[in-house]
Structure formats: structure tokens, C-alpha cells
Amino acid sequence: QKEVEQNSGPLSVPEGAIASLNCTYSDRGSQSFFWYRQYSGKSPELIMFIYSNGDKEDGRFTAQLNKASQYVSLLIRDSQPSDSATYLCAVVSTGNQFYFGTGTSLTVIP
Amino acid sequence: EAGVAQSPRYKIIEKRQSVAFWCNPISGHATLYWYQQILGQGPKLLIQFQNNGVVDDSQLPKDRFSAERLKGVDSTLKIQPAKLEDSAVYLCASSLAPLQRGYYEQYFGPGTRLTVT
What we know:
The complex is a heterodimer of chains A (110) and B (117).
Chain A (H helix, E strand, L loop, with lengths): L3 E3 L4 E4 L4 E7 L6 E7 L6 E6 L3 E5 L2 E6 L4 E6 L8 E8 L5 E3 L3 E6 L1
Parallel strand pairs in A: 2-11
Antiparallel strand pairs in A: 1-3, 3-8, 4-5, 4-9, 6-7, 7-8, 9-10, 9-11
Chain B lengths: L4 E3 L2 E4 L5 E6 L6 E7 L6 E7 L2 E4 L8 E4 L6 E5 L8 E8 L10 E3 L3 E5 L1
Parallel strand pairs in B: 2-11
Antiparallel strand pairs in B: 1-3, 3-8, 4-5, 4-9, 5-6, 7-8, 9-10, 9-11
């Protein structure tokens, strides 16, 4: 079982719609959770981090964490073509090890 | 503020040859990470340094990979001998926060794309 699992996609949404990206993790004791965006041929860049149950909003982005279900998600409101990228979920395990998922490819269609 | 620097940006070698990558983290960042990202996959942590000490190298193939961080600043990652499956992008990242619960914002360098033929 992988430490962090994501649906690889591709996920396609029309411009202006809400994109929903999901991630599950195996280590119940994990405490820190991150969403990174990676454009093709570029390095990952941090979008958001969350470590408390519930929602955390930053502009058009909302991260949601449910530790009981071992589930973390990212919502992108008013999706723009510039949001087209691969979104990586990352988790810090109880051993302080950093694990990335395989990423979900998002395409926003104008 | 200068970002994480890596060199070279691209490298093509034949299998069984050796190769080395260099990373200069953001000034003042105590934690340095090396990742391997194979096409279509997420980054896989190879080794993590805290200053010049190794924190985690559990996923580093130690029979062929080695890394060091002299004086707690620059770092080098070496592969010797290389295999075809080592073809990947090697990413270096650094972080201001030391190991603690909570926030580990990592800043990534541009990466080195390695092709082993």
C-alpha cells in the first residue's frame, strides 16, 4: 500500500468551474499535509498546507482535512486555464518522513 | 532572495558511468532534501539533511547512490554506477524550519534531468 494515493486523472473542468482534487494517506498518525502544484517541466511549488481537521481557505483555494477518514482534498474555485498543472499531495508521516503522491493532472478548458 | 540552485540542468550518460549533482540551498536553510522524480510519478525522497547530518536516507539505494552536505550548506548527490532506471529528474529542496511538527515549506530548485542510455 502506498503512503499517499491520488487519482492520476486527467481531470478536466471548464473555465470558471470548481476543481476537486483528492488524496488519501495510510499513516493515521500523520500530522502535516501539503498541496503542491507542478507545471510541466517545472519544479513543485507549494500552494497550501493544513494540519488541523476542517477547511482552510486561501484565495480561490480551499484545503480540507479529515483525519478520521485519512483524507485530504483541494478545491479550486473559479478555475482558470493557468491552473492547468499536476497537483501533488504530500504528507509528513509519524516518522517525520515526507511522502508525495503521484499527482493528479488537471486541465481547465477555456 | 536567491532560490535553490542546482547544476547541471541536464546530463546524459551511459549506463555504468558515474555522475554527480550539486545543490546550493537558500541561505540560512538548515534542512536540505534530495528527491528523485521519474516521469509520471511524484517526487520520491532520497535523503534529508539537517545541517550536515543525515536525518533520513531510508529510500536511498546505498549500493550506488551517495550524498554529502559538507559544512551544512552545499550538497552533492552521486550515482555510481548508473543504471537505465536512474533516468529521472533529481530535485533538491531546502527548508527553513528544522524537524518539528507543523510547517515544512520546501523550496525546490529547477532540478537536474538525467538520461541514462
